[in-house]
Amino acid sequence: MVGISCRAVAIAGMALGLTAFAASADPLVISNWDGYLAPDAIKQFNEATGNSAELVLHATNEEIMGKLIAAKGKGYDVVFVSSPFAEVLHNLGLAEELDHSKLPNLKNLYPEATTLAHDKGNTFSVPYTWGTTGLCYRSDLTPAPTSWNDLLKPTDALKGKTTMLATDRWLLAAGFLSEGYSVNETDKAKLQQTRDLLIAAKKTLLAYDDTTFYSKLVSGEAQLVQAWDGWCNYGITENPQIKYVIPKEGSDLWVDTMVILKASEHKDAAYAFINSMLDGKTHRWAAENILYKVPNKAAMEGLDPALLQKYPNMTMTSAELLKHEQLRDVGAAQRDYSRTVSEIMAAN
Amino acid sequence: MQDRKSLVLVAPAFAWLTAFMVVPCLLILALAFFRRGIYGGIDYTFTLENVAMVFDPLYARIFLKSAWIAGLAASIAAVVGYAAAYAIAAMPRRHQPALLFFAILPFWSNYLVRTYAWIVLLNREGLIVAIARWLGVEGALPQMLYTEGAVVLGLVYNYLPFVILAAYAPLSRLNPEIAEASRDLGAGGWTTFRRVILPITLPGVATGFVFVFVLSIGNFVTPALLGGGQFQMIGNLVYAQFLTANDWPFGSALSMVLIAVMLVLLTAQTYANERASTGRQASGGVDG
Question: Is residue A111 very low, low, confident or very high in pLDDT (cuts 50, 70, 90)?
């Protein structure tokens, strides 16, 4: 009962919001992270196609998911989300089944980009960027790490000079990988074993950090950190002694995707937008400016060799990327994950 | 007539509070009794599981830890803030507004900026360590940033002005003749302070203490930034439920318990203040 009235209030609120919107215009709404598109990409798309696309920003996957789930996908046309969240949108029936004939630029993608585990054949999502999670370190201050255990069980010299990612999934992934488990492990006993490993590792950490870890490397405050490859590149920009390595136990393959909402009222424009993103030149912007690898052959082949030399992890091939397992939505086991992380955080 | 006029005046504030405070709180309360959907979102089936989970030893321990950190921050802020307010109230009247202005000046900058400033000061390659090195301190210096101490320091720094303002109000209204009377009756400076001034001004400090405690216990930015994410407080736990675990029902259950704790504290505080002021009036009134 209460549920129904809650929904009624929410729907009434949204209806008010939507009427206010309808009065102004009816633009194509694209939600993305800040700085994830070329600053003039929307303007160019509008000029080239006569659309009136509008960019709104979300800070995290969870933020946009909250909005999409509450509104059943209404109010948005295209969203940029990481692959496990694209999967959730698909499972909830909110993601549009893609008509490939409206996305001719899909041909620019590497063949591997169409075989991603979360969505084989790109039926509901189109990959935008992809990469790995590994170790980023100061090669002038510490020997090159080779294993996740170099981070989880550091030498005395490294104690207090390492950081790990604070986000649940990646924090746990480091533990899972070091023990040879899947990054999507849901077995409770294995989860507990990983928790104990990560609690022991916590005692040797400087901090959990997923926003400023590369600046800690630049200042020398940290010497070895768990990092996304693209973010390690930001450190390399400031100090060439910073290097990136994928531990021998492997990494996860993260993929950020573009999804069209089933509730979209501008499907053709939404397809046109995604197609324009897949254009080699447009997509190249992401690789050159965000320093993330993009799954677009045409874009990657157009990159300046100097850039690839400066950021060696950009040269990783799609075949190499595909060797790593993607983080998948773990459904009901998410509660166990969240509890495990709380146990790690509450441990002294 | 008068009643109707005040009713009209009070209505906008009342409507505002109802729409943006009472209704959201009720929604949160309702959410606490549903299940988390398998893909996040909410499954509208009634359950007491979330509320029961709040009292699980793991989460209860996080609550206690938060209360400990908030209590420590509030106690330090109360002592330091009272001393500062006392000093300001003892200054010549014409200087007092300027001194109060300086005390609340940090409020003019953003909370995050102030917190980041502490990171710049405290980190191992930071300003304090650099100054120590320059002064000739050798060897390994203790880690200051990303410790429990840094979290408490951040909370004290950010919320200190609340205590200063709350303690300054009764201190500035204090009739100097009371202190003189105490001295005339043979009490020394310390006895006068302890037996006369402190009891009169204590409610102000207590208000400041409760403010700092309530603001600290729900804080999540300071533990994340100055504690390096290693000290989970209840605020961080709520944040994580809403923004990473996508478990709104459990996040709501945690919030409700937190709000209940705060309400109890604030009610107790109001009750204590009322008792203190009626007590004083009954005994003849001292702060006129």
Answer: very high
- Which residues in chain B belong to E strands, given as ranges? 35-36, 42-43
Q: How many CA atoms lie within 13 A of B46 on its CB side?
A: 3
Query: pLDDT by residue (tens digit) across B242-255?
Result: 888 888 999 999 99
C-alpha pair distances (Å), B234 with each of A208, A238, B59, B62: 17, 36, 8, 6
| ipTM confidence | 0.84
Q: Write the CA distances from B181 to B100, B168, B186, B187, B272, integer angstroms.
A: 28, 22, 9, 9, 27
Q: For chain B, give percent helix, strand, coil, nearest 5.
A: 75, 0, 20
3-state secondary structure of A302: coil
Residue B40 contacts A where some CB pair is shorter than 8 Å: yes
Rg, chain B, Cα only? 23
Enter the pTM of the model.
0.86
pLDDT for residue B282: 52
Length of chain A: 348
Residues with Cβ within 8 Å of A325's Cβ and at least 6 positions away in sequence, in order, are A117, A182, A183, A184, A250, A252, A253
Contact A220 B125 (CB under 8 A): yes
Q: Do the Cβ atoms of A207 and B146 come within 8 Å?
A: yes
AA letter at A2? V
Q: Are A328 and A182 in contact (CB under 8 A)?
A: no
**Residue B243 contacts A, CB cutoff 8 Å:** yes
Q: Are B146 and A207 in contact (CB under 8 A)?
A: yes
* Angle separating helix axes B111-122 and B127-134, nearest 10 degrees: 30
- The count of C-alpha atoms lying within 13 angstroms of the C-alpha of B44, restricted to the half-sphere facing its C-beta, is 8
Nearest to B19 by CA among A65, A76, A16: A16
User: CB A69 to CB B41 under 8 A?
Assistant: yes
Beta pairing class for A224-228 and A242-245: unpaired
Q: For residue A80, report the phi and psi dihedrals to the nearest 5 degrees.
A: -100, 115
- Chain mean pLDDT for chain B: 89
Output the CA torsion A238→A239→A240→A242 (10° steps): -110
Whether residue A250 contacts residue A323, with contact meaning beta carbons closer than 8 Å, is answered with yes
pLDDT mean over B34-54: 89
- Chain A residues whose C-beta is within 8 A of a chain B C-beta are 2-4, 6, 9, 60, 62-63, 65-66, 69, 88, 91-92, 160, 163, 166-168, 202, 205-209, 219-221, 329, 331-332, 334-335, 337-339, 341-343, 345-346
The length of chain B is 288
Q: What is the pLDDT of residues B120-174, one digit of tens each?
A: 999 888 888 889 888 888 777 788 999 999 999 999 999 999 999 999 999 998 8
Helices (H), chain A: 2-24, 41-49, 61-71, 83-91, 149-152, 168-178, 188-202, 213-219, 229-238, 267-277, 280-289, 297-301, 305-310, 318-321, 334-346
Cα(B270)–Cα(B281) distance, rounded to whole angstroms?
Answer: 17
Q: Tell me: pLDDT of A22 over 60.
A: no
